[in-house]
């Protein structure tokens, strides 16, 4: 079996009396979508924050591409190839969709950030940025300020930004949030193709999307992984059905 791209071992995090992450271990393997599901307050976003570097765990290890990334900050982890979209939008609202992606292209190229108008004529930035917008279906919204995009379009733009950084793995925190059925269907198809480029750790409440996409699912309840398995294994798991799916075993 191939070495995991991302390996989390015995991760813990407490906030006062609350144990938000309780000895969590999971792996993200090459080419897979590993979904992380659980009820509200289960600790899913806290776990993603720890993996991306915005929250420091109290214990345990996070290994990415065989390297312990615990000492690294968010920017250093991103430069290694850990691409992230956020549950709450982190876009520059006054910049156009194109400019938002161009900033990511600049960061990947190691260029100094330039905010004067001539940057918009730099084809080494505009062309790859536009290519990312085309991939997520936002080419016709390129000139709009990101503040004027719909909620679903903002999520698509975040994925375009993550793509522009050339990630080796994606951390996607509820990318379907705020999307209607048609938008969710389009994004599901896109993520299904995206796994060939880099594996995806997917936090998502849309169970139709999870069951359609996931190679494996980990179920988080009160900060603890209670089960990991294939879609069929998770559907059959009695503890999962009681704790999360709301069914009697």
Summarize the structure.
The chain has 249 residues and is α/β, with parallel strands linked by helices. It contains nine helices and ten strands.
Please characterize this protein's 3D structure.
This protein is α/β, with parallel strands linked by helices and 249 residues long. It folds into two domains: 1-81 and 167-249, P-loop containing nucleotide triphosphate hydrolases (Rossmann fold, 3-Layer(aba) Sandwich); 90-166, no CATH class. Helices cover 36% and strands 24% of the residues. It has helices at residues 44-52, 74-80, 97-109, 123-136, 151-164, 181-194, 207-213, 231-236, 238-243; strands at 6-15, 18-28, 33-37, 59-64, 67-68, 82-85, 169-173, 200-203, 216-221, 224-229. Helix 3 (97-109) packs across helix 4 (123-136) and helix 4 packs across helix 5. The chain starts with 5 loop residues before the first strand and ends in a 6-residue tail after the last helix.
Give structural attributes.
globular, 10 strands, 4-stranded antiparallel sheet, 24% strand, alpha/beta, 2 domains, 249 residues, Rossmann fold, 9 helices
Q: Helical stretch count?
A: 9
**CATH hierarchy, class of the largest domain:** Alpha Beta
Q: Write down the overall mean pLDDT.
A: 87
Query: From the alpha-carbon coordinates, what is the Rg to the nearest angstrom?
Result: 18 Å
Strand order of the largest sheet: 6-7-8-3-9-10
Shape: globular
Report the β-strand fraction as a percent range: 15-25%
Percent in helix: 25-40%
Can you tell me the CATH superfamily of the largest domain?
A: P-loop containing nucleotide triphosphate hydrolases
Mind describing the biggest β-sheet?
A: 6 strands, mixed
Based on DSSP secondary structure assignment, what is the total number of beta strands?
10
Any idea of the CATH topology of the largest domain?
Rossmann fold
Low-confidence stretches: none
Helix/strand/pairing category: alpha/beta
Helix-strand topology string = EEEHEEHEHHHEHEHEEHH
Number of domains: 2
- What is the straight-line distance between the termini? 33 Å
In the CATH classification, which architecture of the largest domain applies?
3-Layer(aba) Sandwich
């Amino acid at each position: 079996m191939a070495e995991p791209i991302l390996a989390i071992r015995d991760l813990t995090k407490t906030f006062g009396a609350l144990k938000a992450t309780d000895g969590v271990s999971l792996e993200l393997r090459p080419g897979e979508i590993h979904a992380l599901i659980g009820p509200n307050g289960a600790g899913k976003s806290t776990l993603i924050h720890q993996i991306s570097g915005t929250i420091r765990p109290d214990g345990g290890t996070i290994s990415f591409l065989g390297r312990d990334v615990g000492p690294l900050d968010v920017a250093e982890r991103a430069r290694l190839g850990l691409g992230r979209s956020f549950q709450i939008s982190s876009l520059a609202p006054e910049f156009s969709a194109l400019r938002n992606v161009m900033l990511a292209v600049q960061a990947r190229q190691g260029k100094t950030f330039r905010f004067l108008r001539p940057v918009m004529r730099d084809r080494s930035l505009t062309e790859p940025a536009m290519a990312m917008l085309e991939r997520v279906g936002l080419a016709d919204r390129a000139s709009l300020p990101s503040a004027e995009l719909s909620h679903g379009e903002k999520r698509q733009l975040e994925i375009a930004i993550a793509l522009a950084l050339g990630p080796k793995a994606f951390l996607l925190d509820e990318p379907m949030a705020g999307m209607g059925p048609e938008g969710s269907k389009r994004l599901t198809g896109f993520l299904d193709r995206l796994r060939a480029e880099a594996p995806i750790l997917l936090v998502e409440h849309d169970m139709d999307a999870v069951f359609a996409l996931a190679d494996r699912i980990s179920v988080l309840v009160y900060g603890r992984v209670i089960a990991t398995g294939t879609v069929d294994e998770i559907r059959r798991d009695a503890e999962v059905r009681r704790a999360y799916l709301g069914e009697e075993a």
